[in-house]
Amino acid sequence: MSDSNPPTFLSTVLGTLEALAEPGTEPLPGLVSPDPLRPYVTLTFAQSLDAKIAGTGGRQLILTAYGRHRVEGRMRTMHDGILIGVNTAVNDNPQLNVRHLPFPTQNTHFQHYHHPRPLILDAQLRLSPTCKLLTNAAIGAGKAPWVISSAPPPADGFFAAEGAAEAVQEWEERKAALEEAGARIVLVERETLHPELPPTTTDLPVHAVLKALKDEGIRSVMVEGGARIIQSFLSASGTSGLVDTLIVTVAPMIVGRDGVGYGEGLEKVPGLLHLKTEVMGKDVVMGMKVVKV
Ligand SMILES: NC(=O)C1=CN([C@@H]2O[C@H](COP(=O)(O)OP(=O)(O)OC[C@H]3O[C@@H](n4cnc5c(N)ncnc54)[C@H](O)[C@@H]3O)[C@@H](O)[C@H]2O)C=CC1
Ligand SMILES: Nc1nc(O)c(N)c(N[C@@H]2O[C@H](COP(=O)(O)O)[C@@H](O)[C@H]2O)n1
């Protein structure tokens, strides 16, 4: 098989797709969300034999050199957006574009593949204005990232926390710096039982994030990680059915107990329907549908 053809693994797991697809065009076959209020969600990551996705202290690991370019690059061009947590953005400084794919030979428009829109979940706006996602977008090597965030609680009023005014000002300054660098900030409502109190978590509610993305025209999302994002999406999929397809690459490597794992708190994960498993080089890639049991 030529590298310019989609791997049959992906045609089986996600459907057969053409590469060029921008928001505003017809939905891609195979990636139509079952819920009109959210995009189609593919959760995909690479792990070691002991279920670690990064090394000690979040050090990036190259787990899947071969399968990554063929499968991950192709998957990126099949989705409107590619979503990561801010820790991954800060630790890895990733590019999240389709630079590894060969130039399409049968493309009469002489355009390269569609780059997915990078989507960073980042309540506190920790993304750096000089990150590769922004410098790449400035030279056309990827789409400008959207930073999904939530405005900090108001700094005035009886319940305002100490330091709230400074927090709001810092958040506004970081927002301005990111926008100046080319990012778009997409706001979601943060849910809390006590809206008057400061939030105790930096995690944005997954279903609200997905709804906001759908409202902005994102029809399909490839969620890449890291560990906390994987946990959030898998846990949320148990109650609300928020993940459609799970694609996991297992590499023949043991990282050890200090590596970053995602395996806690997954009691609510629903059933998995196996679709296809393929050996790619040294790696094993598994495709599953996430189903309610
Ligand atoms: N092997 C692989 O396929 C991949 C590995 N990684 C690795 O994962 C590591 C980072 O993982 P983590 O530290 O767990 O961070 P993460 O990348 O999952 O980011 C977590 C952060 O995202 C923000 N966030 C906002 N809403 C959230 C929500 N609903 N759920 C969870 N987080 C939310 C919070 O600030 C939270 O601290 C990196 O070192 C990276 O190398 C990342 C992606 C893929
Ligand atoms: N499939 C896969 N295999 C690995 O071994 C990985 N480390 C990752 N990591 C993900 O890819 C991002 C880097 O993307 P760029 O090469 O910079 O475009 C990284 O941040 C993780 O999300 N994935």
From TrEMBL:
Name of this protein: 2,5-diamino-6-ribosylamino-4(3H)-pyrimidinone 5'-phosphate reductase
Residue ranges of domain Bacterial bifunctional deaminase-reductase C-terminal in the record: 39-285
GO BP, one annotated term: riboflavin biosynthetic process
Catalytic activity: 2,5-diamino-6-(1-D-ribitylamino)pyrimidin-4(3H)-one 5'-phosphate + NADP(+) = 2,5-diamino-6-(1-D-ribosylamino)pyrimidin-4(3H)-one 5'-phosphate + NADPH + H(+); 2,5-diamino-6-(1-D-ribitylamino)pyrimidin-4(3H)-one 5'-phosphate + NAD(+) = 2,5-diamino-6-(1-D-ribosylamino)pyrimidin-4(3H)-one 5'-phosphate + NADH + H(+)
Protein's job: Catalyzes an early step in riboflavin biosynthesis, the NADPH-dependent reduction of the ribose side chain of 2,5-diamino-6-ribosylamino-4(3H)-pyrimidinone 5'-phosphate, yielding 2,5-diamino-6-ribitylamino-4(3H)-pyrimidinone 5'-phosphate.
InterPro entries: DHFR-like_dom_sf, RibDG_C, Riboflavin_Biosynth_HTPR
Gene3D superfamilies: Dihydrofolate Reductase, subunit A
Molecular function (Gene Ontology), one example: 5-amino-6-(5-phosphoribosylamino)uracil reductase activity
EC class name: oxidoreductase
Organism (species): Dentipellis fragilis
Pathway annotation: Cofactor biosynthesis; riboflavin biosynthesis
This enzyme's EC code(s): 1.1.1.302
Sequence similarity: Belongs to the HTP reductase family.
Keyword Aminoacyl-tRNA synthetase: no
Pfam families: RibD_C (PF01872)
Record keywords: NADP, Oxidoreductase, Riboflavin biosynthesis
